[in-house]
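User: Reviewer 2 asked us to show a designed sequence for the structure in our supplementary figure. I'm pasting the structure tokens here. Could you produce the per-position amino acids so we can include them in the response letter?
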């Protein structure tokens, strides 16, 4: 059954003009773009979105990066969308992605460990929270109705 996940195209890829190419690859991989929104996050919004990383060594750098320009948030649907989207993105660190998954989006469009082109929810719970953050009122997971 279809599953939904929350994706973002981050400011590095947006500034490089790669959003269109990334969305083409997303659709070619069989995902349906259910909703999309381009927005420049405020500091407070970025800190809320990444609350689970507060206190980590990379948190301030992450917030500075994520507020450096517009991002595109996407609600993606496909069977197994959460794991499937993370596989299409590749490893978090761009250098690792280039070694281990050279065709992945982060290998192709990322910059370094922080500026890594895309984000994806890491679990069903994260997808529900992050989906509601970007698309309030959207039904993030149809299958919650059947649970
Ligand atoms: P993302 O998948 O959006 O989740 C957290 C983000 O923090 C990550 O991608 C990177 O942009 C950034 N980041 C920077 N350093 C690290 C690190 N050491 N581990 C995980 N994420 C990091």
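Assistant: Here is a per-position design you can include in the supplement:
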């Amino acid at each position: 059954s279809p599953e939904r996940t929350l994706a973002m195209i981050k400011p590095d890829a947006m500034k490089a003009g790669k959003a269109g190419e990334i969305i083409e690859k997303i659709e070619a991989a069989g995902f349906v773009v259910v909703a999309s929104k381009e927005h420049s996050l405020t500091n407070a919004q970025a800190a809320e979105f990444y609350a689970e990383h507060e206190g980590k060594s990379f948190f301030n750098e992450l917030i500075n990066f994520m507020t450096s320009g517009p991002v595109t948030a996407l609600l993606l649907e496909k069977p197994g969308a959460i794991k499937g989207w993370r596989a299409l993105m590749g490893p978090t660190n761009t250098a690792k992605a280039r070694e281990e998954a050279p065709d992945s989006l982060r290998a192709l469009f990322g910059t370094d460990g922080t500026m890594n082109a895309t984000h994806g929810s890491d679990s069903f719970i994260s997808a529900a929270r992050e989906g509601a953050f970007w698309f309030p009122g959207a039904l993030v997971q149809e299958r919650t109705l059947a649970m």
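For the response letter, you might also mention the following. The pocket of adenosine-3',5'-cyclic-monophosphate is lined by residues 53, 58, 62, 92, 113-114, 116, 119 (CB under 6 Å). Residues 2-135 form a domain with the Alpha-Beta Plaits fold (CATH 3.30.70.141).
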